[in-house]
Specification:
The protein is α/β, with parallel strands linked by helices and about 375 residues long. It is about 40% helix and about 15% strand.
């Protein structure tokens, strides 16, 4: 608990310091156009955007939370790119001063034009990222299992990271359901982060439930928990899934059509907890499973793929969003053994497929990644 508190303190402190830096850089540009601007009015407006993301944690109406959340999540994208490009601008200016291409002290005109360039580049990237995030592509894989048994050919559709409640993510649900049904799946796997910490942030829960019930699949729709599927509204999340016709597997398994075994793992790091539910060892789950049947595992976080060996045939993961937007696309690639796509360590190891997800989180943009529905033909 102390560690988490310290981490939160460090993150908030960094966020505050970075925003002060961005605010100063923007102000030095703005006063060239609006020399009579009141610094306190500017500071108040900037602070409003900076703190808008945190309103959801206060005891205010869900209407206000949703409204402020819309502002806050978009601000996060602006914050990241303002910080990145202002730092780049400072480096360019420093190089100019060292090479004497820029005179000291630095002219206000240079500060003005550097701020203008940073703002324009950020606006273009945010617009592109917003439009790109709305696209939904279909990605296909074909996997040959060693333990084919009575499997024949089966089509698994995997989606993940719906993040219902985040920036009206459920608005994309009709398109997602159509995309799933167009593939005519034998089974649908929702690999975690169905919600975004609080089920009450969903604008129209009944409509979302009805849309999920519209998924057509021969053997049904199954899900596992992700790190955002917990918290104080966890019991309501469980009811939502039950009403939607989605069967949640909490370190449990189901034999699908006498053809293969499907396991759903409990996530290791739930935000707010799963009401006392904790992850158990994979060996305990495997103890009663028919070893002749192929085993498919849903495990939200690909950080734990090392837990699976030759007795597991296919592991489905998500969580990374493939970094979602640059520069985090580089970060996830360096952190995870596989942050996206297909991977198999060797011939005795399971096939791993990691999806970038169907929706966004943090900020509703995608740069260097796309939202996707994954179709897997298993042989």
């Amino acid at each position: 608990m102390k560690r988490m508190t310290l981490s939160a303190f460090i993150m908030i402190s960094v966020y505050i310091v970075a925003n002060v830096y961005i605010a100063i850089c923007l102000y030095l540009g703005i006063i060239m156009m609006l020399p009579h601007m009141n610094v306190w009015i500017y500071a108040g407006i900037y602070t409003f955007f900076t703190l808008s993301l945190f309103v959801r944690f206060f005891p205010v109406s869900y209407g206000l939370k949703r409204f402020m959340n819309q502002i806050g999540v978009h601000w996060i994208g602006f914050f990241v790119y303002f910080l990145l490009f202002f730092v780049v601008a400072e480096i360019v200016i420093l190089i100019g001063r060292v090479t004497r291409l820029i005179q000291s002290p630095i002219s206000p005109d240079i500060r003005f034009w550097s701020a203008v360039i940073v703002v324009l580049i950020t606006l273009v990237l945010m617009l592109y990222g917003k439009l790109n995030a709305l696209k939904l592509r279909n990605v296909s894989y074909e996997v040959q299992l060693k333990k084919s048994g009575n499997l024949g050919e089966i089509k698994i559709v995997m989606i993940a990271d719906l993040h219902f409640g985040f920036s009206s993510a459920e608005k994309n649900l009709p398109k997602i359901v159509r995309g799933i049904n167009d593939v005519c799946p034998d089974v649908v796997c929702i690999v975690g982060d169905i919600f975004n910490d609080d089920v009450n942030l969903i604008r129209d829960r009944d409509t979302a439930i009805e849309l999920l019930k519209g998924i057509k699949s021969k053997y049904g729709v199954y899900a596992c928990l992700g790190n955002h599927d917990g918290g104080r509204t966890f019991p309501e999340m469980l009811r939502f899934l039950e009403q939607s016709g989605v069967e949640l597997l909490n370190d449990e398994y189901r034999v699908i059509g006498d053809r293969f075994v499907l396991i759903g793992r409990v996530d290791t790091s739930p935000i707010g907890g799963f009401g006392g539910l904790e992850r158990v060892g994979i060996a305990d789950i495997m103890a009663n499973i028919d070893s002749e049947l192929p085993v498919v595992v849903m495990d939200h976080n690909p950080a734990y793929i090392s837990e699976y060996g030759s007795e597991h045939d296919l592991v489905l993961s998500a969580h990374t969003h493939k970094g979602q937007f640059f520069p985090f696309t580089i970060v996830t690639k360096s952190i995870f053994t596989v942050d996206y796509g297909y991977y198999q360590k060797d011939s005795e190891s399971p096939h791993i497929i990691v999806t970038s997800g169907v929706n966004t989180w943090g900020t509703p943009i995608r740069i260097g990644s796309t939202s996707e529905i994954v179709s897997i033909t298993v042989l």
